[in-house]
C-alpha cells in the first residue's frame, strides 16, 4: 500500500503540461486581481492544520468546506475558495488538494519568488468530516514558544519556521480579519527578503506592520540567527523558503 501511494504521488510529476495550463490560468487571475497573497494564504491555511502525531489535517483541500472556512484564522478567504471552485470546473482531473497548493506555488513565482517543483497526487478530503478543530493555525498575538508548538506539531525546525515567516513579505493584514492592519514591506506584491531587512532596522518604519510573531524572531537567539542570515543572503532565503514551502505543501502525503 505504501509503495502504491508513493508511486501515485511521485509519478504524477509527469503532468507538467497540466501544471503549465494551471500557471496560465492562475497568472491571468493574478494579472486581473493582484490576489497572489490571498491564494498563498489559502494554500498555507489548508496545509497548516497538519498534526504529525495523529496524521490529521494538512493539504487535503478541506479548507474548501464552509465548516473550515468559518475558523477564525480563515476570515477573508471565501472569495479565494470560490475562485478555486471555478478553476476546478476547467480542471476536472486535478483534485482540490493539488489545486489549492498549485495556486500558492504559482503565486510565489508570479511575485518573483522561487520556482518550486510541484507534485500532483495529494489525498483530497471527500467531505467536511475531515476538517480539523479550530485553533491549529498560528496566533499572531503570541510568541516564539507558540510558533514552535504550532510548527513543531507539523515537524518544522527553527530555520524552517523563520524561512516560512518570510512569506509575510507578500500581502497585508486586515483589521477585520486578523485584528491587525498594514503591510510588512513597502512592496507587498514582490517576493524577496525585505521582510527580514525591515525587521533588522533599528528604527522601525511606522507605516509598516510588526506582529508579535514577527518581533519574537528578533528576541529569540535561535531564531534570530536565521533572520540575520536571510536578511543578508537573499539566495539562501529563497533556497530555504522553497524547501520549507514544499514540505508544508506535501505534509501527510
TrEMBL record:
Pfam family, one: peroxidase
Keywords on record: Oxidoreductase
Domain of life: Eukaryota
InterPro entries: Ccp1-like (IPR044831), Haem_peroxidase (IPR002016), Haem_peroxidase_sf (IPR010255), Peroxidase_I (IPR002207), Peroxidases_heam-ligand_BS (IPR019793)
The Plant heme peroxidase family profile domain, residue ranges: 94-253
Gene Ontology BP, a term: cellular response to oxidative stress
Protein name: Plant heme peroxidase family profile domain-containing protein
Lineage: Eukaryota, Sar, Alveolata, Ciliophora, Postciliodesmatophora
Amino acid at each position: 500500500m505504501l509503495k502504491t501511494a508513493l508511486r501515485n504521488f511521485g509519478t504524477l510529476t509527469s503532468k507538467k503540461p497540466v501544471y503549465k495550463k494551471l500557471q496560465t490560468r492562475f497568472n491571468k487571475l493574478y494579472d486581473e486581481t493582484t490576489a497572489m497573497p490571498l491564494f498563498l494564504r489559502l494554500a498555507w491555511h489548508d496545509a497548516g492544520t497538519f498534526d504529525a502525531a495523529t496524521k490529521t489535517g494538512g493539504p487535503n483541500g478541506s479548507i474548501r468546506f464552509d465548516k473550515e472556512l468559518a475558523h477564525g484564522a480563515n476570515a477573508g478567504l471565501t472569495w479565494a475558495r470560490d475562485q478555486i471552485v471555478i478553476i476546478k470546473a476547467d480542471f476536472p482531473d486535478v483534485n482540490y488538494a493539488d489545486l489549492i497548493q498549485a495556486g500558492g506555488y504559482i503565486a510565489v513565482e508570479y511575485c518573483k519568488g522561487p520556482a518550486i517543483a510541484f507534485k500532483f497526487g495529494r489525498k483530497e478530503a471527500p467531505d467536511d468530516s475531515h476538517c480539523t478543530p479550530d485553533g491549529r493555525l498560528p496566533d499572531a498575538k503570541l510568541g516564539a514558544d507558540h510558533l514552535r508548538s504550532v510548527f513543531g506539531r507539523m515537524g518544522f525546525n527553527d530555520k524552517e519556521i523563520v524561512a516560512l515567516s518570510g512569506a509575510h513579505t507578500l500581502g497585508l493584514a486586515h483589521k477585520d480579519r486578523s485584528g491587525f492592519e498594514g503591510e510588512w514591506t513597502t512592496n507587498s506584491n514582490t517576493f524577496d527578503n525585505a521582510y527580514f531587512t525591515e525587521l533588522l532596522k533599528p528604527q522601525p518604519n511606522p507605516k509598516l506592520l510588526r506582529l508579535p510573531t514577527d518581533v519574537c524572531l528578533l528576541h529569540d537567539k535561535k531564531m534570530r540567527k536565521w533572520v540575520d542570515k536571510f536578511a543578508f543572503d537573499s539566495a539562501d532565503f529563497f533556497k530555504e523558503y522553497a524547501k520549507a514551502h514544499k514540505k508544508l505543501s506535501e505534509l501527510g502525503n
